[in-house]
Amino acid sequence: MPVQQGFHFSQASLQDFVNCPRRFQLRYMDHLAWPAVESEPALENERYMQQGQRFHRLVQQHAIGVPAQRLEKMINQEDLAYWWKNYVSHGITLTGNALSKAEVALYAPLRGFRLLAKYDALVFINNEEEGKALIIDWKTSRIRPSRRWLAERLQTRVYPYLLVKAGACLNQDNPIFPEKVEMIYWFAAFPDQPERFSYSAGQCAQDEAFLIDLIDQIQAMGEGKFPLALDETACRFCTYRSLCARGESAGKWDEELELGDQTGEQSPIELDFDFEQIAEIKF
Ligand code: SF4
User: Fold this and answer.
1) Whole-structure pTM over 0.70, yes or no?
2) 238: Cβ below 6 Å to ligand 1?
3) Which region holds residue 64: left if phi is over 0, alpha if psi is between -120 and 50, else beta?
4) Probe ligand 1: pick from 226, 244, 248, max atoms within 8 Å of CB?
5) How far apart are CA 101 and CA 60, in angstroms?
6) Beta carbon of 269 within 6 Å of any ligand 1 atom
7) Which residues contact 280 (CB under 8 A, 6 or more apart)?
8) In this predicted structure, what is the pLDDT of residue 255?
9) Which ligand 1 atom lies nearest to the CA of residue 247?
10) Higher-confidence residue: 166 or 276?
11) Which member of 40, 172, 248, 283 has the greatest number of CB atoms within 10 A?
12) Measured in Å, how far apart are the chain's first and last C-alpha atoms?
């Protein structure tokens, strides 16, 4: 069995498997550190990622009650200042709701393993007229992805599914019905264009079957090397590209934008800060 008992799956690791089985193996099974940059210029990319991380921290502090004016004084970078201004004026605020949770993790058993998700924010609204469970994900990517691209992401399937299966403990032990769940992507650079996905019992059943099938595919891989990505586009922004003989130099930021233009699908390669991945990948 390629994956041993105790292994936990997440949207990030499953997405890696879908994009490139070899990357899943190198990153999550072998824990292989490979010193290549993901995109050029490297320093600019690192600076951008750090700002994304700081934005998530600011929102988390705001959610637990630190006044926005106080947080604003800690901002000394241009992108971050712009995102924060957008958040304060357009963002979905978490303050004032006793059942708002920022940066929380949930897990549930699936196929003998653990399925894990770390949420940027959850908001539960329980009253007689409406009951809702909102999943909010802050995105600081440079481009606004299309709805179709987001709909196909594992994140859009794993987060609502796991909230239904395991989220009652965060909702005063009230069960969370699929029809009450909504997933919202909010883009710090595009504050007027959030993307919202409703959920349903039918989608929940489909997601469960899909996730089980993915885990079974991983288990069926055998003990050897997993196959490389069929689509080499992913390799241009992958740290393992020299190991896989898929190129020495990193893709450039503006290539990322061009790719979106060529396909008509805004498809940001995963250079956004991801709270889940930062916490998960330990080399
Ligand atoms: S370089 Fe390409 S083939 Fe190798 S792990 Fe990365 S995405 Fe997969």
Assistant:
1) yes
2) yes
3) alpha
4) 244
5) 9
6) no
7) 10, 12, 13, 116, 118
8) 58
9) 1
10) 166
11) 40
12) 22
Residue with tokens 């991945």: 277
Residue 107 tokens read as: 């897990």
Q: Mean pLDDT for the chain?
A: 84
- Name which of 100, 53, 3, 109 is nearest 277 in CA terms: 53
pLDDT one-digit tens code per residue, 3-14: 888 899 999 999
Q: Tell me the per-residue pLDDT of 106-133, one tens digit each, with 9 for 90 and over.
A: 999 999 999 999 999 998 887 766 678 9
**Residue of the CA atom closest to atom 4 of ligand 1:** 244
How buried is residue 37: exposed, middle or buried, by Cβ count under 10 Å (0-12/13-18/19+)?
A: middle
Q: Tell me, what DSSP letter sits at residue 247?
A: -
Question: Could you tell me if the CB of 228 is within 6 A of ligand 1?
Answer: yes
Question: Do 51 and 80 contact (CB within 8 A), yes or no?
Answer: yes
3-state secondary structure 145-203: CCHHHHHCCHHHHHHHHHHHHHHHHHCCCCCCCHHHEEEEEEECCEEEEEEEEECCHHH
Question: Phi, psi at residue 166, to the nearest 5°?
Answer: -135, 5
CB contact at 8 A, 140 and 146 = no
CB 209 within 8 A of CB 113: no
To the nearest 5 percent, what fractions of the chain are helix, strand and coil? 45, 20, 35
Cis peptide before 41 (omega within 30 of 0): yes
Q: Measured from the CA of 26, which atom of ligand 1 is nearest?
A: 5
- The number of residues in the chain equals 283
pLDDT of residue 44: 73
Residue 65 reports pLDDT greater than 60: yes
268 residue type, one letter: P
